[in-house]
Amino acid sequence: MFVDLQLASVYESYSIDDSTILYDRQLQQYMKDYIIFGGLPKPAMANDFQEKIALLQDIYQTYLLRDVRMYVRNEDTVGFNKLLRLLAAQMGSEVNINELSISTGLPYKKCEEYLYLLEQMYIIKRIEPFLSNKRKEITKMRKVYFFDNGIRNVIYNSFNELDFRLDNGALFENYTVMQILPYMGRNANLNFYRTRDGLEVDFLMSQAGKIIPIEVKYQSFSIAKNIRTFSVFETIQSFEEALLVNLDLNRKKGKTRYISGSVFPKYFMSL
C-alpha cells in the first residue's frame, strides 16, 4: 500500500504488458526500502531511517524474544537464538536440519520442533523441492524464507543499502516469494527445482494444472534474451509462460516474460 498518492499513480501507470524499462527512481527506491525494512505497518510508515530500525528492534524484542520464546524451553534459549541467526544467514538456501542441530547444540528433534513453531507463527516459510524424477533430483531439503525482510534483517543485524550488500540477491528472492504467496489459491503450490545435472529453477508455481517457472535476478537488463534454464526445464516439464523477475525490465520474448520487481504483483492481478 502506497502512502504517497503520487507514487501510487506512477505505479498504476505501468503495465506488465508494455515493453518498457521502469525508470522511475522513486518507485525503485520504494521497493528497495521495502526489501530492507519489510512491510510491517509502523516501520513502513516511519520516515526516519533510525526510527524504522528502532521499531523493528522493538517488534523483535516483544514478539520473537518474548512471545515466541514462551514456547521454548529455558535450557534451549541459547540454541534457539543461534537457530534464528543461522536461518537468517541461510535465507534462500536449502536448510540441513542435521547441520543446524550440530551448530546450535539443539537435539535434531528440537530443531524440527522449533522450525515448525517458527513457521506456524509466521516468522519463516519453508519451500519444498519439486519432485518429478527421483533419480535426477538430488535433494529433499527445504529452502527457508522469512515472512518479513525487516524482521530477518534485525536478526541478521544489517540494514546496509541494498546495492552494496552481498545478500541482495537473497533479499530480492525473499521479497519475490512474499509477493507470490498472497495470490496463490488454496490448491496452488510453490516449489523450487534442482537436479544432479546442475539444472536449478528458483521457483515453480503450480496452480490449476499449470506450472510457471520463475527465476529471480537482482540485475538490470536492457534487452530480453532467451534463458537457457527455462529452455532446458521445458524438456522436462511443459509450460505456457516463464517469469524472470529483475530490477527494471518489462518485456516478453518467446515464452519468457521479464518483469520488474517493482510491479511484479500486477502479474498475479492479471491472471
Outline the structure in words:
By secondary structure, the protein is an alpha/beta fold. It has one domain (5-12, 21-269). It is 42% helix and 19% strand. The chain has 11 helices and 10 strands. It has helices at residues 5-13, 25-37, 41-45, 49-67, 77-89, 97-104, 108-120, 149-156, 168-180, 228-234, 265-269, and strands at residues 20-21, 94-95, 124-129, 142-146, 189-194, 200-207, 210-216, 242-246, 249-253, 256-260. Helix 5 (77-89) crosses helix 8 (149-156). The mean pLDDT is 91.
Structural class of the helix and strand makeup? alpha/beta
How many domains? 1
Separation of termini? 20 Å
Counting DSSP H or I runs of 4 or more residues, the number of helices is 11
Shape: globular
Q: Count the beta strands.
A: 10
Strands of the biggest beta sheet: in what spatial order?
1-9-10-8-7-6-5-3-4-2
Uncertain parts: none
* Mean of all residue-level pLDDT scores: 91
Helix content: 40-55%
**In angstroms, what is the radius of gyration?**
19 Å
Percentage of residues in strands? 15-25%
